[in-house]
């Protein structure tokens, strides 16, 4: 019999990746395609769901082809996805009624402020573990139902989207649901993605009737919620479809929970930080949903079949890798690899601080009207200072989260496991260790988001036996110990709050 593997579809903010892993967690195939970022107005961010699905099929086929694999060799498929990004589509045709509203999209800030003024923030936090913010899916779904142009139906005149949603003719989901629907025909999400909608009660583990009423989102349009690793399976790919094989689709995790799982953070107190478009710092809190007094989110970490839910505390930083992309966009650098060279060419930023609040600020500030700011420039400021200040902003934002995490959990972080594209930058990893004054551990396989979803799917079908087997796969590539004196790190970090203060509540016109 041909050797079997597990495939992972990693649908991210800027593109879609397909990876295949063997039993040791090593990468056998890797294919990637970018998709268009659509900015209809300032602060609005959209994706084309059809383009995402077409790209998904493309990367799966090209990944298998380049590795010389047949689809029949896939024991299972797992999915991981950009969270909160929201799609509403027609149940019968599968056609989206509007572009996806991306997690970065701020168009519903006014609605969030209405909820804040109405005193509903604490109720939302108690039910969902989330801050009341435009980041999440609830206000995005509400906006689409209120504002999207209704589909023109062949059989009848165009009808109000809300009426169609109440009649079960429309489906809503995050990207995982969209992909599972297109792969299997079933409307399913996992507990980790459901917990990011601001519609899901994470204590009772059900769609919350009061929140559905608040946002006028009919339960008929919501997906069934399943474990992240599901022995009952989400379904199979169609033997007559693009893969030409019936492959079990058995696991799904929001991207940050997938990275937590891929970093084998299976025990309470284990923590990881993923450096992607944004950065997301998660700590496993076990079977207890720990509430935050410091602007962190309480979220579902993952759930295995037949087992209790594991929760996590999360610090969401909206812009980190995207700040490096911005440096490219404005021609300060030619490519991301240049940042380490330029930043290390100077001893400091000469007092320059960059706050990359391009889409507002997440934890612990939660200011949707904050905007990007560079302060402290003089006539002697060069691009190398701005580049270094940008890398330092990533480290400072992460320290914001680390301090909040320790205050809420009472657990001191001794080692932080890191992953994502930016951690290939040794300068950034060392800077992060210095600013947090904590050991940074980078694993050999740094695509831990895809790996985590592969692990979830593989466990469900028995490809891996248990969590201990996965733990044995985790290998350190390099560790970075703090080299900077704590007094110097504290001094640099001390002015960060001053810079953040100047970025807050800026976008008054939106």
Automatic annotation (TrEMBL):
UniProt GO BP: glycerol catabolic process; glycerol-3-phosphate metabolic process
UniProt cross-references to PROSITE patterns, sorted A to Z: FGGY_KINASES_2
Residues the record lists as binding ADP: 13, 17, 277, 321, 421, 425
Binding site for ATP: 13-14, 277, 321, 421
Record flagged with keyword Kinase: yes
Residue numbers binding sn-glycerol 3-phosphate: 13, 83-84, 135, 255
Enzyme Commission number(s) from the entry: 2.7.1.30
Residue stretches making up the Carbohydrate kinase FGGY C-terminal domain: 272-460
Gene3D superfamilies from the UniProt entry: 3.30.420.40
Record keywords, A-Z: ATP-binding, Glycerol metabolism, Kinase, Nucleotide-binding, Transferase
InterPro entries assigned: ATPase_NBD, Carb_kinase_FGGY, Carb_kinase_FGGY_CS, FGGY_C, FGGY_N, Glycerol_kin
GO molecular function annotations of the record: ATP binding; glycerol kinase activity
Catalysed transformations (reactions): glycerol + ATP = sn-glycerol 3-phosphate + ADP + H(+)
Record-level GO cellular component terms: cytosol
The protein's enzyme class: transferase
Domain Carbohydrate kinase FGGY N-terminal residues, every copy: 5-262
Positions annotated to bind glycerol: 83-84, 135, 255-256
Pathway named in the protein's UniProt entry: Polyol metabolism; glycerol degradation via glycerol kinase pathway; sn-glycerol 3-phosphate from glycerol: step 1/1
UniProt-listed Pfam families: FGGY_C, FGGY_N
Function, in words: Key enzyme in the regulation of glycerol uptake and metabolism. Catalyzes the phosphorylation of glycerol to yield sn-glycerol 3-phosphate.
Family to which the UniProt record says this protein belongs: Belongs to the FGGY kinase family.
Protein name: Glycerol kinase
């Amino acid at each position: 019999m041909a050797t079997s593997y597990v495939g992972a579809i990693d649908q991210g903010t800027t593109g879609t990746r397909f990876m295949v892993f063997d039993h040791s967690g090593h990468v056998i195939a890797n294919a990637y395609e970018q998709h268009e970022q659509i900015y209809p107005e300032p602060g609005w961010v959209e994706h084309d769901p059809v383009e995402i699905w077409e790209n998904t099929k493309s990367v799966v086929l090209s990944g298998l082809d380049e590795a010389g694999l047949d689809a029949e060799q896939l024991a299972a498929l797992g999915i991981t996805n950009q969270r909160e990004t929201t799609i509403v589509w027609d149940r019968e045709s599968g056609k989206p009624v509007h572009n996806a509203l991306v997690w970065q999209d701020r168009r519903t800030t006014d609605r969030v402020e209405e909820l804040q003024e109405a005193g509903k923030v604490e109720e939302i936090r108690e039910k969902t573990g989330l801050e009341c913010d435009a980041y999440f899916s609830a206000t995005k779904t509400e906006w689409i139902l209120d504002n999207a142009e209704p589909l023109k139906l062949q059989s009848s005149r165009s009808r109000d989207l809300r009426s169609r949603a109440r009649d079960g003719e429309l489906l809503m989901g995050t990207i995982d649901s969209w992909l599972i629907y297109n792969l299997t025909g079933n409307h399913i999400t996992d507990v980790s993605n459901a917990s990011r909608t601001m519609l899901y009660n994470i204590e009772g583990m059900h769609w919350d009737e009061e929140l559905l009423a608040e946002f006028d989102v009919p339960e008929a349009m919501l997906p069934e919620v399943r474990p992240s690793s599901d022995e009952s399976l989400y379904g199979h790919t169609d033997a007559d479809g693009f893969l030409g094989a019936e492959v079990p689709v058995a696991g799904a995790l929001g991207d940050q929970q997938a990275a937590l799982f891929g970093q084998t953070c299976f025990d309470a107190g284990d923590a990881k930080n993923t450096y992607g478009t944004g950065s997301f710092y998660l700590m496993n809190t076990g079977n207890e949903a720990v509430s935050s007094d410091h602007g962190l989110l309480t979220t579902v970490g993952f759930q295995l079949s037949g087992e209790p839910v594991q929760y996590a505390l999360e610090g969401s930083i909206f812009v980190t890798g995207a700040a490096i992309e911005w440096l490219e966009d404005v021609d300060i650098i030619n490519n991301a690899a240049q940042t380490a060279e330029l930043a290390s060419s100077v001893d400091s930023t000469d007092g320059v601080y960059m706050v990359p609040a391009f889409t507002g600020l997440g934890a612990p500030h939660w200011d949707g009207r904050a905007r990007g700011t560079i302060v402290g420039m003089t006539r002697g400021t060069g691009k190398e200072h701005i580049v270094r200040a940008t890398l330092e902003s990533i480290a400072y934002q992460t320290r914001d989260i680390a301090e909040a995490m320790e205050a809420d959990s009472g657990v001191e972080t001794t080692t932080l496991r890191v992953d994502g594209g930016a951690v290939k930058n040794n300068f950034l990893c060392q800077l992060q260790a210095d600013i947090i004054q904590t050991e940074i551990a980078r694993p050999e396989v740094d695509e831990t988001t895809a790996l985590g979803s592969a692990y979830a799917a593989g466990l469900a079908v028995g490809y891996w036996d248990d969590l201990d087997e996965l733990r044995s796969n985790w290998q350190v590539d390099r560790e970075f110990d703090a080299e900077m004196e704590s007094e110097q790190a504290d001094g640099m970090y001390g002015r960060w709050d001053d810079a953040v203060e100047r970025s807050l509540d800026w976008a008054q016109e939106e």
